[in-house]
Amino acid sequence: MAAVEPKPPGTSAAQRLARGCWSAFWDYETPKVVVVKDRPLGVVYRAVQLLILLYFVWYVFIVQKSYQDRETGPESSVITKVKGISVSEHKVWDVEEYVKPPEGGSVFSIITRIEVTSSQTLGTCPESIRVSNATCDSDKDCTVGELDMLGNGMHTGRCVPYYYGPSKTCEVSAWCPVEDGASVSQFLGKMAPNFTILIKNSIHYPKFRFSKGNIASRKDNYLKHCTFDELSDLYCPIFKLGFIVQAAGENFTELAHKGGVIGVIINWDCDLDLSASKCNPKYSFRRLDPKHVPASSGYNFRFAKYYSVNGTTSRTLIKAYGIRIDVIVHGQAGKFSLIPTIINLATALTSIGVGSFLCDWILLTFMNKNKVYSHKKFDKVCTPPRQATASWPVTLALVLGQAPPPTPHHPSGRPPSPPPGLGS
């Protein structure tokens, strides 16, 4: 007869642990209501509930309107048009000359001051004294073919007198004369505060299929005789340049002399549960460039106008200072939706339970009768199984060797007799 193969040690204990865990998995837990007659604790409980309720009712639902489905960042188009005439010391300036670029986009510049270097031709001339290592005492200080990326041209190897004063600089092959050697400043900003700027803006929220523009739907010549006013002419988006600069909190003369960037912000916050007439644009103005940083204060750019004289190509170099306008459009729209309403209501009802959690923690931690409360709150009810099995905590203790083995069940209700051979 074959010998019975011994079972590996611990196999029965592991099986008991598995059966105990499987049995505990199907246990059901239900809350037990315990009424605690304690006035201070009741005040804390109701105060926490009230604060949570006020937060959800006032802030979440009224202020944030969390019952709405929302869409941010509307699709937007901007068209601009500037009108006005200005004069400088030498000429009259119209829109075609002082607005760059002329296409009428959301970003454009209005030139208010220029430094003009006229009649530049390709040749040789002294380098600008502002360029580092440009000053010299003799030709030995100038290297032939040297090219400074911050300069105006290539060195010829000669040291020549500067345009004015006793200084000398290295000669360069470039557009001559260089800018700071012969530039003349002209101020165009005398009439600039009266320039008018039309900002035509239309927005679209595709999720809600909602579109609107910032110009009144009128068939008369309304735009020819109106200017923007927040109260009386909200849908006349014609702004004077002086008004925009003043609304941004800037001094016009200073800004026109050094240049700067002004943002025109159009905000479309729309509650689409209301009528379309309640969805109106809100305008704000502020300076965008770093005003108080000396290294990069102001705004300027360069461009040139080319022409030919007796077959020789010449140009007029213009360094322009101006006011750049950036039109920025943003906003959000919201409309009632059942899904966010249900989600936020469920969150509110769940959050009210924070009061119970806080009061339970106070009872179990700080109050004198915390053991009594713990005994009243936590009960364990066991239904008699068909065959007695150890609960999974007892089984776990058996496996770890932390508890005595269970007493076997005897049909007669009496403990089993000891095996023969053991003491009487």
Automatic annotation (TrEMBL):
The chain crosses the membrane at residues 43-61, 345-367. It catalyses: Ca(2+)(in) = Ca(2+)(out). It is a multi-pass membrane protein. Belongs to the P2X receptor family. Its main location: membrane. This is P2X purinoceptor. It is found in: Cell membrane; Membrane. Residues 402-424 are annotated as: Disordered.
